[in-house]
Design a protein that fits this description.
alpha+beta; 5 helices; 30% strand
């Protein structure tokens, strides 16, 4: 896949957010998804992004992750969204249903990552909003996520989309000697109005 060279970020193409089916329907995008995702995730983790890795993940690990998420999205057990500027992946996110039988009505937003070059352009909001809509359409009752407490920008974004904090583990996330709180958020679709009230 040819990289998109953006010399003027203000004139960069608007990101297009695709679901898993749309990505898989395009042979070029499908073939390059794992490698592009690896580049984004490895670069972000190397820069200190709180994505669950201490060291940048390897290509094989990301390829296995992408394969697992695509399979879940195809079977209705999850959703994947990928943001593209032109033909270049600039962000991705996904949720997966909980595996415990007693938690099956619910899903967890596990990763949301936007390339450093695409920050500040609304890509994270577009990805998250699409994933929230996917969860609602799939009949998910409660969508959860957890984040490192110092990730203020992401937490602000989640709150603006209706998520609320429901718990926190103090000094739970460890990177070397550093510690941060782990914060838990939820979006409860059961609390949304339905029927005539929903259209008011």
């Amino acid at each position: 896949m040819r990289p998109l060279m953006i010399s003027d970020p203000d004139n960069a193409p608007e990101p297009v957010v695709l679901d898993a089916r749309a990505v898989l329907a395009d042979p070029e995008l499908a073939a390059g998804l794992a490698e592009s995702a690896h580049r984004i995730l490895a670069d972000l983790v190397a820069a200190g992004a709180p994505l669950g890795w201490v060291d940048p993940p390897g290509r094989e690990e990301v390829a296995e992750l992408v394969e697992r998420v695509l399979a879940a999205a195809t079977s209705g057990e999850g959703a994947l969204r990928a943001a593209y500027a032109g033909r270049t992946l600039i962000g991705l996110g996904y949720w997966l249903r909980y595996s415990r039988p007693t938690h099956r009505p619910h899903a967890d937003l596990e990763k949301l990552a936007v390339a450093g070059t695409a920050h500040g352009r609304g890509t994270g909001r577009a990805l998250t909003a699409a994933l929230v809509d996917d969860a609602r359409q799939a009949g998910v009752e409660v969508l959860t996520l957890d984040a490192r407490a110092d990730n203020a920008h992401a937490l602000r974004l989640y709150r603006s989309l209706g998520f609320r904090e429901y718990g926190r583990l103090p000094s739970f996330v460890a990177v070397g000697e550093r510690r941060w709180d782990k914060v838990f958020y939820l979006l409860d679709f059961r609390a949304e109005p339905t029927g005539p009230e929903a259209s008011r």
